[in-house]
Design a protein that fits this description.
single chain, about 180 residues, seven-stranded mixed beta sheet, about 30% helix, about 30% strand
């Protein structure tokens, strides 16, 4: 397999396994600034507290994409966005981050990850799915995806000392 080889996305969405974490860290940090950078300790914390930490496997047993979803309010999580949502919603599931490898983009993988997370949230009695997307620096691909998926903006805020601005998004799960 040459350097340009990309394993196709295959298989059902599944829970994260310990062996996935190195690849997830690599995918996450390659996606900065669309998502915030992570250290290995951060991933272990997410694996412990996440409502859902899901991966989409590729054809060679690797990870083509992942979503880390939290529930709230109530986690001791130092995130301005999670804190914003926690102050306004009594019960929710929250997409902390979703990353899809370039080889998996455009084929519906993001939708499959969101569908699986949303279904788990709904099954647990949550009626709202929350997320945020950068508007500075602008993440047009993610903004289009979230719009097509049915999210609506419920606010905006600056983060990272004003270096970033996000739109805060909501999608009802009860219908």
């Amino acid at each position: 397999m040459g350097a340009g080889y990309r394993a196709p996305v295959t298989g059902p969405i599944r829970d994260v396994a310990e062996g996935d974490l190195d690849r997830i860290l690599e995918l996450n940090n390659a996606a900065v600034p669309a998502v915030n950078p992570l250290a290995a300790d951060d991933l272990w914390w997410f694996a412990e507290v996440a409502h859902s930490f899901l991966v989409a496997p590729d054809a060679v047993g690797g990870v083509a994409g992942f979503v880390i979803g939290l529930h709230g309010p109530g986690l001791a999580y130092d995130s301005l966005n999670y804190t914003w949502f926690s102050a306004r919603y009594d019960r929710f599931v929250y997409v902390d981050r979703i990353v899809v490898a370039e080889s998996g983009r455009g084929g519906g993988l993001g939708r499959r990850l969101y569908d699986a997370f949303g279904a788990r949230g709904r099954d647990d009695g949550h009626d709202v799915l929350l997320a945020e997307v950068n508007v500075r620096p602008r993440n047009d691909g993610s903004l289009r995806f979230h719009d097509r998926y049915g999210f609506r903006s419920v606010g905006e805020q600056d983060t990272d000392g004003g270096a970033k601005r996000v739109t805060l998004l909501e999608k009802r799960l009860d219908g």
